Amino acid sequence: TRIPLWRDKPENILGVLHAKDLLRALRAADGDASKIDITKIVLPPWFVPEMRLVSEQLKAFRTRKTHFALVVDEYGEVEGMVTLEDILEEIVGDIADEHDTVVAGVRTQPDGSVVVDGSVPIRDLNRAMDWNLPDEEATTIAGLVIHEARSIPDRGQSFTFHGFRFRVLRRERNRITALRIAPLGGAEVAQIEKARAGSAG
């Protein structure tokens, strides 16, 4: 429902567009989007420091009666965004929402595997599938595979890490654009760990 708007470069945030404000403006313009000046209906951006405690940010959301903030580092560079729902889910677990939809670019297969576009954020995939893939070293699922492989894999290559098997389905230039991911069974994980222990010895 809320989209940050930027000019020239993503770090230059002009404001936050709320879907309700856009719909009201469309109605006032009789449905003619060309008559709408987006800059006139955006809300001022709210920037918060990345070192702020979650408990403090929760209080700040309640005080300001808003659910959306942009997070900046010590140099003022935008690191991302945080919502009230993000914080609540960190505290109580995933919250089902009537407007939640399957993450775009994530397609569950009949065999239990999942075909994922390379650009899908790891965090979104974890939420959609109730997985726990790490997102400290990479933001997207393609980035995670490249990080673990220490290279840009070719189409058809497979990797096993973090309890999953990753197979590259498509690669365009230096980008992985599609992957098939399958969770490993307990026996498979144990076998892999045993093999790694043997090679390490």
Overview of the molecule:
- With 201 residues, this protein is α+β, with helices and mostly antiparallel strands.
- Helix content is 33%, strand content 27%.
- Strand 8 (158-161) and strand 9 form a beta hairpin.
- The N and C termini lie far apart (54 Å).
List keywords for this structure.
201 residues; alpha+beta; five-stranded antiparallel β-sheet; three-stranded mixed β-sheet; 7 helices
Please outline what is shown here.
This protein is an alpha+beta fold and about 200 residues long. Helix content is about 35%, strand content about 25%.
> Which residues sit in consecutive blocks of at least 5 with pLDDT less than 50?
none
- Main β sheet profile: 5 strands, antiparallel
Total number of β-strand segments? 10
Radius of gyration: 21 Å
| SSE string | EEHHEHEEHEEHHEEEH
Overall mean confidence score, pLDDT? 85
Coarse structural class: alpha+beta
User: What's the overall geometry?
Assistant: globular
Tally of contiguous helical segments = 7
Strand content: 25-35%
Strand order of the largest sheet: 6-7-10-9-8
- Assembly type of the chains comes to single chain
User: What is the helix fraction of residues, given as a range?
Assistant: 25-40%
Task: Describe the secondary-structure layout.
Elements: E1 2-6, E2 13-18, H1 19-28, H2 38-41, E3 47-49, H3 54-64, E4 68-72, E5 78-83, H4 84-92, E6 106-108, E7 114-117, H5 122-129, H6 141-149, E8 158-161, E9 164-172, E10 175-183, H7 186-200
Parallel strand pairs: 3-4
Antiparallel strand pairs: 1-2, 4-5, 6-7, 7-10, 8-9, 9-10
